[in-house]
Amino acid sequence: MRLESVHNIQDLRRLAQKKLPGPIYHYLDGGADDEWSLRHNTDAFDGYQFVPRYLRDVGSVDLKTSVLGRRLNLPFLLSPTGMSMLFHTQKEIAVAKAAEKFGTFYSLSTMSTTSLEDVAAATSAPKMFQIYIFKDRGLTRELVERCKQAKYDALCLTVDTPMAGNRERDKKTGMVIPPRFGIGSLLSFALRPSWSLRMVAASGFTLANISHRVDALRSGPVGIIDYVNNQFDRSVTWCDVEWLATEWGGPLVIKGLSSPDDAKQSQ
User: Fold this and answer.
1) Hey, is 12 helix, strand or coil?
2) I need a surface site. Which of 74, 82, 124, 137 has the fewest CB within 10 A?
């Protein structure tokens, strides 16, 4: 299957499964535990239906809208995905340039393999930086200052990771960061030589925004669940959100709220 023959999301999933080694594909495609929430998040859209209004002039269709003070050509944005080096040789910059091409927001993950400064230099598209409040508040403050200097349009605080989800697929496949060619997954990597050769030829794997402050990877590969639980602060409250908003002084989005009451409190 080639990209030209992709017509929907399921086609994209099949193409990714064909191109990526098993541990990498399942990290991208999977969820936590029995993946009930993953399925529910998709199935929930089945409950919505568009009600068409006919006999309207649709000779000119305009999808433009405004989000966080920036004018977009599309009514949606690209959400943050960590460690994009695992999926594309041009890493996060490839996605940022796609957002620029089609005129919408790109959201860069804290856990990216490209620095926030390099992404800012590569594209003039609207940019949002997805941030966590680390146990090391100095690191969080540093990231905010770097975003100011790089002229990001907004911050996106992720709050639904007081503990990492129990990603059973990753445990079964042995997925760690940086990726390791272990005995259990060696065949899967061997059967995807194009991916494996590109990874070998690429520069070293690093979490580019935080590797200078967080040394968890220096002693060798570490499980994603363990990494998150070691670095992210479980004591974060609304007071910390207020602190972050003050430090940033610009548009701030909260990602991960599920309760209507929490959403109202964020206003």
Assistant:
1) helix
2) 124
